[in-house]
Amino acid sequence: MRATARPGWPRLKACRGTDCRWVFIDSSRNTSRRWCDMAVCGNRAKSASFRTRRSASEPVA
């Protein structure tokens, strides 16, 4: 409740990782950060997206 009263409340975000439950403070200039850690959660999300795009574009044999 104390966090909601502070001016930095919009910068407090939940990680978008499917299996992550972390909350972080978005310190990016335009508040566009999505993951708690790019090396873990961000990498997993981007790898999954790549695999999905790659499998959709491959011709069926």
What does this structure look like?
This protein is an alpha+beta fold and 61 residues long. It contains two helices and two strands. It is 39% helix and 10% strand. It has a two-stranded antiparallel ribbon. Strand 1 and strand 2 form a beta hairpin. The radius of gyration is 16 Å and the shape is elongated. It starts with a helix and ends with a helix.
Task: Record the SSE blueprint.
Layout: H1 2-5, E1 12-14, E2 23-25, H2 38-57
Antiparallel strand pairs: 1-2
In short:
The protein is of the alpha+beta class and 61 residues long. The protein has two helices and two strands.
Run of helices and strands: HEEH
Q: Give the class from helix and strand content and strand pairing.
A: alpha+beta
Largest sheet: 2 strands, antiparallel
Number of strands: 2
Mean pLDDT: 85
- Measured between the Cα atoms of the first and last residue, the distance is 57 Å
* Helix amount: 25-40%
In percent, how much strand structure appears in the residues? 5-15%
Radius of gyration: 16 Å
Number of helices: 2
Give the low-confidence spans: none
Give the overall shape.
elongated
Q: Taking strands numbered 1, 2, ... along the chain, how are they ordered across the largest sheet?
A: 1-2
